[in-house]
Sequence to fold (673 residues):
Amino acid sequence: MTDGDLLLETRALRKEFGGLVAVADVDFTVARGSISSLIGPNGAGKTTFFNMVTGAYQPSSGEIVFDGREIGGLPQHKVTALGVGRTFQNIRLFGTMTTLENVLVGMHCRLGSGVWRSLVRAPAQRREEAQARARARELIAYCGLPARAERQYARHLAYGDQRRLEVARALATTPKLLLLDEPTAGMNPQETIAFIDFVRKVRDELSLTVLLIEHDMKVVVEVSERVTVLDYGEKIAEGEPAAVTSDERVRTAYLGTKAAV
Amino acid sequence: MTRVALPVRLRLPALSARTRRRVTIPVAAAVVVWLLLYPWLYTSYLSNTLTQWLPDTSTAFVILAFTVMGLGLNFVVGYAGLLDLGYVAFFASGSYVAGWLASQQFAGVTISLGGTAAKGTPGIHITPWLVILAAALFSAVLGVLIGIPTLRLRGDYLAIVTLGFGEIIPQFVNNGDNIAGHNITNGSFGMTGIDGLGFGNRLHSVFSFLPANFLNEIDSRWYYWTALALVAITIATSILLRDSRLGRAWVAIREDEDAAGAMGIPLMRTKTMAYLIGAFFGGAAGALITLQASATSPDAFVLQISIFVLSMVILGGMGNVWGVLVGGLVLAYVNYKGLYAIGNTFNSTFGTNVQVPEYANLIYGAAIVLFMLVRPEGLIPSARRRSELHEEEEEEREAEAAAHGEIGGTPA
Fold:
């Protein structure tokens, strides 16, 4: 992995909602194989940034280059097919689908059976479904979900398992870049530590690149190789975790200016 | 979602999977045999007291044909979660395709392809079996054409626009007697003299095993069996697609459209596919009904039909093909036979003269309100819907199960 090997690069990426500039001309890079974090106070534009990268929002201006391809403005499913997988900050599983079905939905763009093949249950379709199920079960186990969860509705899973399923479903899309939106929200310290290890494991074993939005500074410092800070939509700092967290502007953004004593 | 808590709640007993199988398979087999033999049973073996409550074969045909529409709409509303208030548009398109391809509407030409009209009759006369298929395909195309602009909308907005299309199509039909000088639809008069089912004399002469043209001795049994076959095909399609990649994508979209998109599901294509398949069966049923009625006209395609078919889906159990089947059969039965039978029995018992069918809308309204209060998930809901609407009970059940060690706590 060389410095020049970028998986994701945004150039002057901007999103305006009416008069509100949610993301202001952000230049941003993610090196292939890295684990990076995007941090910033609430409302800094982190999730908006994610939504542009995944194609949920159209950028107002600027470019998004993923794996050597301009993807700005592509519809979500095409971006996913190119290799961007994501989880959601507020868990958005398919509640009345089972754990297994949720993961199978994640595989949608990697499967090819259409209406005709499904209607006649062609051998190719049955083989594909069987393989998909086997792979889904592997992923469910890999993400630490108990085997019995497979047939439970996602809405009935415990909170921690729902978080795990979000990751399993995102991995089912076979991403090159995994976007995790506040994955440790609501986890206790032990679970958080386990999750950090899991993210590293995923990166190494599945040779992924990971970009997280995270509020928990311990997680950020612990897991990321590079941190970018957004504040009011602007990039205010970037670099190694230790350097960024001691940056004056970052401290100001998070804690406010020092009052005159 | 807030819901009135009622002390009574209609609940079917929970049976184990094995008991259910042991009960359902023989029952289902008996029902199928009964349905297949129904035309003979009705005319030969059933007593008068029973036939007073049972529809004759032509009425049974109409009941089945409307059930096909309910099952078709279930693809759109039940599976993909797209509220469609204009399903009657596909009934209309199927109906008019039948008129175009099997009547004297286009008397300028004389085309006969195994049609059931007498040889040399002006107009297009295609074999009715192909007419049904053509009507279904035409409606499917129409479904895509309506779907492309409207399916970008969500929820209530989509419902309103589909309502509009349900009104536009009959309007078009009503004014279609002079489109650039061509009489396409015969305007408010509609089309009459539409051919019936049959194999046509020409087909009979080529394939002698097929019965000869029986246009002039309309045999309602053939309509009945055709509708029954169509019900079977629709059910098979429902089940095969439900348990497929496409079926999963529909449910995912119903659950959370944005998340579905982020998981790589092409939203427009998948939603349009639900529309296409729903329209296909709506068109087929429309054509079949028209072939039997031998006429069609714009005033048949009213909003009430859309609501009627939607009620089958909702009362039967959204997203569950068996629920919709039962909902369709029950509602169509009540509409086309039950109310008359109830009225007759009521009047002969009490010596009154109440026209019960005139109170149909009142009765339906009351039934729907009652259902929404007592059993909002429908007669036979899909497990998904039940889980959605009875959250507290599900949780209780799971808590109980957990207490017995069936479902463990959160693993570390």
User: Anything to note?
Assistant: Chain A has a mean pLDDT of 92. Chain A touches chain B through 49 residues (CB under 8 Å). The longest strand of chain A covers residues 6-17.
